[in-house]
Fold this sequence. Notes:
- The protein is mainly β.
- 12% of the residues lie in helices and 47% in strands.
- The chain has one helix at residues 2-25; strands at 30-34, 37-40, 44-64, 70-76, 87-92, 98-109, 113-126, 131-132, 136-144, 156-161, 165-167, 178-180, 190-194.
- Strands 1, 2, 3, 4, 5, 6, 7, 8 and 9 form a nine-stranded mixed sheet that branches. Strands 10-13 form a two-stranded antiparallel sheet.
- The chain is rod-shaped, with a radius of gyration of 34 Å.
- The N and C termini lie far apart (120 Å).
- Residues 1-25 have low confidence and may be disordered.
Amino acid sequence: MKKRTVLLTLTILIAALLMCLTTALGASASLSVSGGGTYNVGDTVKITFTVSGTNVAQAHARITYDNSVLQYTGGSGATLPSSAAGVVQAQFGDGNAHSSMSVSLTFKALKAGSSSVSVEASDIIDIDFNPMSGSTKSVAVTVKNPSQAASGNANLSSLRVSAGSLSPSFSPNTTSYTVNVANSVTTCTMSATTADAKATLAVSGS
């Protein structure tokens, strides 16, 4: 009987010890980051990261990036002081229990190049102030110069002459004209406007 009592007592003590150990270690929290990809110079880059877990109450994150390629412009979902060049600190959570908490950061693409945006989540606690494990994730951002593709619209939107008149009258689909002027005219200036504002216009001859 005494032997059984001792074994039962040991079993209870081991179970209690395991429960205390589990509480001390805390649950794990997961981290996800999105928003990587390819952008053009001048584009807005939005990076969003999410900390998920059971009853997450508060967390901290350190975000690093290449500030020669990206310029930090702001964010939402956290207190986001920029502590140094290429570093943003994020403190988020309101003390209430959440299954996930998200923070968004915005950057301006400054020049062609690449930057890894790294998020290190730490100091994560649940609603009972138990620590939760953190992790580090990153996404790659590539910035390119805008491509200068040739315009597919070679039409004119207008064609004018300073003297005389066009024959036939202007039409975007007409490519050949005659200008009739009086004998007293010595100079006739022609002006044209492209239908595509990004198209270029070249004039030859005199």
